[in-house]
Design goal:
Number of strands: 11
Shape: globular
Distance between the termini: 40 Å
Order of helices and strands: EEEEEEEEEEE
Largest sheet: 7 strands, mixed
Structural class: mainly beta
Helix content: under 10%
Length: 124
């Protein structure tokens, strides 16, 4: 069974950091497009970051320079390192898997396996 399981969320003060993890079960993340999205209360889900099959990355402008996405193929896990968190980063963060051997797109339709989410809450 193909499954993504996120962890690492929590409550932090502004300026803090969290390392979110996304463990994949049932298939390999190696050479696959993987992404992170988030959804704040009352807002639509939005793109945060993705990592392409060749490990090049892309980030939303709102997180550029603060968030980093990377993968550990040996652990079959994708990470999102979040630094300099602000209250505007408060949201449910979702990991998602896209196609094998390709470049990601920033829209949700490019991803077909989703995790259950991990909550990030940033207080001022």
């Amino acid at each position: 069974q193909v499954q993504l399981v996120e962890s690492g969320g929590g409550s932090v003060q502004a300026g803090g950091s969290l390392k979110l993890s996304c463990a994949a079960y049932g298939y390999s993340i190696s050479n696959r497009c993987m992404g992170w999205f988030r959804q704040a209360p009352g807002k639509e889900r939005e793109f945060v970051s993705h990592i392409n099959f060749d490990d090049t990355t892309s980030h939303a402008d709102s997180v550029k320079g603060r968030f980093t996405i990377f993968r550990d193929n040996a652990k079959n896990t994708v990470y999102l390192q979040t630094n300099g968190l602000t209250p505007e980063d408060t949201a449910m963060y979702y990991c998602a898997a896209g196609r094998f051997g390709g470049y990601c797109r920033k829209d949700e339709s490019a991803f077909y396996v989703w995790g259950q989410g991990t909550q990030v809450t940033v207080s001022s």
